[in-house]
Specification:
By secondary structure, the protein is of the alpha+beta class. The protein folds into two domains: 56 residues; 57 residues, no CATH class. Helices cover 42% and strands 17% of the residues. It has four helices and four strands, in the order H-H-E-E-H-E-E-H. It has a four-stranded antiparallel β-sheet with strand order 1-2-4-3. Helix 1 packs antiparallel against helix 2. The longest helix is centred in the N-terminal third of the chain and has 33 residues. The chain is rod-shaped. The model has no long low-confidence stretch (mean pLDDT 78).
């Protein structure tokens, strides 16, 4: 847009200076020169506009490059996290035995974990189940399921 404006102002300045430098006589040659000058300015303006259109088209062109997929090689297992960054252990005072649909099982109380385990919201829902306790039916987390998911008891 700035280039169009500058080109228009420059063209107008050339035309005006050309007109003001000419004596006040009206000749057929002068009229032809003015028309030729206006035509030249129009051609210059059109060339600038076409150049800007091509530049805009180049800037809008985007080539999508797909993300390289990392294929898992069979037989390679990830190393366990170092002890310093591994998730904290589950509190042992939340562990008890309860009657589940599959029979008696070692479970962690969901309320106890909510109160005493910082990452309780990240526990896998697949390990959650309802069990009968001495206080009625409660939500619990199966200890064997959590162990299979990589969770462990806190060491004292």
């Amino acid at each position: 847009m700035h280039r169009k404006f500058i080109a228009t102002v420059a063209a107008a300045a050339l035309v005006i200076t050309g007109l003001s430098a000419v004596p006040a006589r009206a000749d057929v040659n002068d009229a032809a020169k003015i028309i030729a000058g206006i035509a030249a300015l129009a051609l210059i303006a059109k060339a600038i506009e076409d150049s800007n259109d091509r530049k805009a088209a180049r800037q809008q062109h985007y080539t999508h490059r797909p993300v390289q997929q990392h294929h898992h090689q069979p037989g390679l297992k990830p190393r366990p996290l170092p002890h310093q960054v591994a998730r904290p252990g589950l509190p042992d005072h939340c562990l008890f035995t309860a009657q589940t649909a599959q029979g008696p099982a070692h479970v962690f109380g969901a309320r106890c974990l909510q109160r005493n385990y910082v990452q309780a919201n990240t526990l896998p829902q697949a390990c959650a189940q309802q069990a009968w306790t001495d206080r009625g039916q409660r939500w619990v987390y199966n200890a064997a399921c959590l162990r299979n998911q990589g969770y462990r008891l806190a060491s004292r």
